[in-house]
Structures are given as structure tokens and as C-alpha cells.
């Protein structure tokens, strides 16, 4: 077995059992593009600082680009005994160009190298997540536009509360995803500092120019403390937190739609292509995609917990425990991207049953608040109006009637301020039509909001 690139002080070969336990190439191979990008920038900086020659730099860059092409084409063989992506690429470069490759690691450690690679990877993945969120928003806005005017019951405590537009409900999740996008951009700004130049933890005695590599790699600047630079994984935890919130929003929506699928409600009908059947019950049509999105939310949370737990007791600066950060961050990103992708597809292939929703609105006295506010406009104090309407609802329950079907004379027994015009506020259509406050389910506001999101999401 060949001697390790770091094996100068060692007299024994690493045991195969140790190789298997400590290797990370099985998962950190994903960083190859970023490792090569960082190495090209590092070699360019070394040449500009006269630490290596221009000729050596060109040989290194040419060799790295050949390796990149081989990996892209699936022709590169990763070796477990070389531990990680960094050693695999460096070893391959030495095999190809010889002595110049041995100078590439000058003024660099795997500690700042992996910190760099991971920042580059996370920065790119954040924008991938951002784009997936935009696609999900577009699907929801499209459905909001298609079903504009459909009235559904709004719920609090899982009980009928007030009637709302289905479009208003769908746009609530568009707003949530927009906050998710803002958090991602904020996270991206915070991570966008280059750790390259911190070396193992203390920097280097060589005359390097970290600001140059930071500029070449499109960072806003460099990390100002070399110890923090190699030990910081806050950006991974922050990204994992952002992804956890995204998965929570998805899971929350899926929970509702799973309920809406059941035979009692039938608010939605999902395309057969996005459902599964039962192995024993021929009639079943199960919303398994929604259930799996809901289930994977827990998996996402677990990775955030893993990262937080891993770092809570780590002394500065780098520790090998940190190798495990990639297991968590790689899987959490892949999981959430898969969730967002299938959710957008499913949404576009879901039909909303407006008749069922409207019919459901007739239950639960959802126009009671509108009646209370009617009395407020008659100068009745709200608390008194609340009591009056509560008494009317009790009467309706006793008589098995809806408020709008109650005789006017009976209503007047509870308040002399109730007149014939009360029927202009009762009933779910009147409730929705009469909403006035900004951000409410008033049709004109919802229509404007749909137009706003169409412009915002489709520009560029």
C-alpha cells in the first residue's frame, strides 16, 4: 500500500479497518467540482505571490481540469485508502503531472480546504432550493388563479371559523415559501466569506494573498479569524434550519390535504398518477406522496439535531467529528429538494372540489362573526354583540337552522338593532364579499395578490 501523503512521521501502515471507518470519499465525492475550483484559485494565487512559477501553475490548472472532466464523465476511480475527495484529487494530480502537483498544498490545509469546499457547495445549493421554492409557489399561484371565487371553510382549532376564498388559503403557503426564500438569501450572505488562507488553524508564514482567492471564488471577503474559519459550520446549521422550516411548511400543507382527501370531505382529488393503492383493499386510493412528504419532515429535523448536537461540545478548532457534517447536510438538502419537486408536480395535478367546499361552509355558523360585526356597525359594543350572536347561535342549534334561515322576528328578540338588511351580511357569499381589511379574504385583495405573485414569480 502506498504511503499516505501525510505519513512522514508514521512507521506503520493504516489498518484496513481504520481505512473503512474513517473514510469519507463515499459521500464527500460530491465536493469534487468545488475542490477543483478552489484548488485552481489557490494555485493562481500562489503563482501571483511568486510562491510557485507561472509554468507550474499552468501545469496544475491543466491537470485539475483533466481530472474534472474525468469525474464528470464517470471515468475517475475514487479510492477509499485515499480517505477523502481532497486526497483523491491531489494524489491523481501528482500521478499526472509529478513534482508541480506536490506544491499545490503549499499554504493550505485540508481544514481550510474542506471549509471552503463546503461553503461553495452550500452557496450553490441554496440557490437550487430557492428555485425549487419558486416553482412550488408558481404551482400554488396557478391553482389560486384557476379556482378564484371558490369559497371554503376557514378553520381554527380544526373547527369551522369563517368562510374564505380557496385562493386566499393557497396564497398563505406562497407567503410562507417567500419567507423561506428570504431566509435562504440571508443565510447565503452570511456564509459568503472565504476561509481559504486559514490553513490548519493559525494561518501561514508564507506571503499569500487570501483576498485574491476570495475574489476569484466570488466571496464578499475573507474570514477575519483563522481559528473560526476552520471550525465554523454555522452556515450548515443555518441552512439546515431553513430547510427544516421549508419541510415544516410542506408537512403542514400535506396534513391538511390528506384530511381533505378523505371520504367525509372530498375537498380535493389528486391525480391517480400521484397516489397508490392497497395490497388488500381494491377500492383504496391513498395520498402516499403527501404522507411521505409529511414523514420526511422528521428526517429533515433529525439532521438539524445531528449538526447541533455534534458541535455543542467541540473545542476549537477542527476536529474529525466535523467529517460527519457532510453526511447530514448532503442528505437534508437532497431530501428537501425531492420534497419540493414532487410537491409542485402533485399540486399541478390536483383538482379542488369547489362544490364540496362551498357545501361544507354551510355547517358550523361561519357567518356568526359577520353578524356580530353587523351589530357593531349599529353602534353595539363588540362584547355585547358577541353575546347576542352567541344567544342566536344557541337558538339556531335548538331549532336545527342556519342563522340566515332564522326568522327576522326571532332575531329581533335578541337585539332591536337587527333589521331586514341583516340578510345582506348573512350567508357565506355575503361574508366573503363584505371583507374589507387589507390582507383579508376580500375578493379584490385576493385577486390583486394573485396578480402580484404572477408578476413577481414570472419575471426573468
Summarize this structure as a short list of keywords or feature phrases:
Ribonucleotide Reductase Protein R1, domain 1; 460 residues; two-stranded antiparallel sheet; 5% strand; Fumarase C, Chain B, domain 1; Fumarase C, Chain A, domain 2; mainly alpha; 18 helices; 6 strands
Helix-strand layout with pairing:
Elements: H1 16-22, H2 25-28, H3 32-48, H4 54-72, H5 85-97, H6 110-146, E1 151-156, E2 159-165, H7 166-191, E3 193-194, H8 210-216, E4 221-222, H9 226-231, H10 234-261, E5 268-270, H11 288-311, H12 325-348, E6 350-352, H13 354-361, H14 368-377, H15 382-399, H16 408-414, H17 428-434, H18 443-458
Parallel strand pairs: 3-4
Antiparallel strand pairs: 1-2, 5-6
Helix pairs in contact: 3-4, 3-6, 3-8, 4-5, 6-7, 6-12, 6-18, 7-10, 7-18, 10-11, 10-12, 11-12, 14-15
What is the top-level CATH class of the largest domain?
Mainly Alpha
What is the H-and-E element order? HHHHHHEEHEHEHHEHHEHHHHHH
Please name the CATH architecture of the largest domain.
Answer: Up-down Bundle
Content-based structural category:
mainly alpha
**Spatial order of the strands in the main sheet?**
1-2
- Range of helix content: 55-70%
Question: How much of the residues is beta strand, in percent?
Answer: 5-15%
In short:
This protein is mainly alpha-helical. The chain has 18 helices and 6 strands. Strand 1 and strand 2 form a beta hairpin.
